[in-house]
Design goal:
The complex is a heterodimer of chains A (about 270) and B (about 80). Chain A is α/β, with parallel strands linked by helices and about 270 residues long. Chain A has helices spanning about 5-10, 40-50, 95-105, 125-140, 150-160, 180-190, 205-215, 225, 230-250; strands spanning about 20, 25, 30, 55-60, 80-85, 110-115, 145-150, 165-170, 195-200, 220. In chain A, helix 4 (about 125-140) links the parallel strand 6 and strand 7 (about 145-150). Chain B has one helix spanning about 30-35, and strands at about 10-15, 20, 40-45, 50, 65-75. The longest helix of chain B is centred in the middle third of the chain and has 7 residues, at about 30-35. The radius of gyration of chain B is 12 Å and the shape is globular. The chains are: A alpha/beta (about 270), B mainly beta (about 80).
Chain lengths: ~270, ~80
């Protein structure tokens, strides 16, 4: 509905069309999670099939009772996948800030997917806490990718606070409902300069394609792949869905009209 | 050597909300080793301060210290 930004129209065919976040380039516009898989083996194969270059992880207390359980990092090749720690299940800015600092220490970068949750049932973000945590962490040199709602005013505030991207939800985390408010996502894209990555609520490949057609620069998902009957196959579908949606977006779709305009000539029909 | 019932010399600390008794003068590195944890796979906070890996060998624990020891797990 809204006009493309000039730099999107100018993308030549042979450029890589990389996703750039905080100056770092990614060829894949699909970011995937590491949770809810039936096994580490399936997770690894799904990651491979998805073509993703960045994966999210959660930060949790070690289990002091269990001796030598397998660690998640044993199953992720960190030379190949960029690790993005999240602050999932943090309900205050303080909790999120502490978790982010620990995630930086445990990990290999100062990037964090920042979550400050405001409601247990919907897991919708507490945007007030999210903004406060973003401001604190940006000052400490973190690269912040905030999980947020689809409100353009909040998105703008996050960008002003120094977030490297804005990640509005399509629908509640793990709901699989797909994009619930296309207009809001388009409005956000038009309002901000940093990349918009749709994060949460994607259920199947067409949902990912829709998000990309709206102008999202990337899509982040976990449950859609992990909870599919065949996660590896769904990961492949998502890879294709994101690519298809991106191509369609760059191609510049036709206008929508309420009435028909024929594709074949209307005259010269035999017998008329 | 860690035990919640030891009566010998030692200090009481808490790790991930659980009370532990450790030998006086224990370093953070020794504690992690005694817990069977791989230092490269965890991050540690002592009294709300993240302790960098480089300090694990030199930081000595004190009575009443509150530790959080975390690692990465699956998540979205």
């Amino acid at each position: 509905m809204l006009p493309s930004r000039e730099e999107e129209k100018a993308t030549p065919n042979d450029r890589t069309d990389a996703l750039v976040i905080a100056g770092r380039e990614f060829r894949s516009r699909l970011i995937v999670g590491t949770g809810k898989y039936p096994s580490f083996q399936v997770m690894k194969e799904a990651h491979e099939a998805s073509g993703a270059e960045m994966v999210t992880v959660a930060v949790r207390r070690v289990d002091l009772n269990a001796r030598g359980p397998e660690n998640l990092l044993d199953h992720i090749d960190t030379r190949r996948y960029f690790i993005l720690p999240n602050t999932a299940a943090c309900y205050t800015a303080d909790e999120a800030v502490r978790t982010a600092r620990l995630g930086r220490e445990a990990g290999l970068s100062n990037w964090v997917k920042l979550e400050v949750i405001g409601d247990e049932k919907t897991l919708y973000p507490d945007t007030e806490g999210l903004l406060a945590a973003t401001r604190t962490l940006v000052k400490e040199g973190f690269i912040i990718l905030p999980y947020t709602n689809d409100d353009l005013v909040v998105a703008r505030k996050l960008e002003d606070a120094g977030a490297a991207a804005v990640m509005p939800l399509a629908a509640p985390i793990g709901s699989g409902l797909g994009v619930q408010n296309r207009l809001n996502l388009e409005l956000i894209r038009a309002a901000i300069r940093v990349p918009m990555i749709v994060d949460a609520g994607v259920g199947t490949a067409s949902d990912a394609a829709v998000a990309m057609e709206l102008g999202a620069e990337g899509v982040l998902m976990n449950t859609a792949i992990a909870a599919a009957r065949e996660p590896v196959r769904m990961a492949r579908a998502m890879k294709l869905g994101v690519e298809a949606g991106r191509e369609a977006f760059l191609a510049g779709r036709m206008a929508r009209k309420p009435y028909a305009t024929a594709s074949s000539p209307q005259d010269g029909v035999v017998g008329r | 050597m860690t035990s919640t019932t030891a009566q010998g010399p030692g200090i009481d600390i808490s790790v991930n909300g659980r009370a532990l008794r450790v030998p006086t003068g224990s370093t953070l590195a020794k504690l992690l080793e005694s817990l069977g944890l791989d230092r490269a796979r965890v991050a540690v906070e002592v009294n709300l301060r993240v302790v960098p890996r480089a300090e694990h060998e030199t930081l000595r624990l004190n009575h009443g210290d509150k530790l959080e020891v975390v690692t990465f797990v699956g998540g979205g």
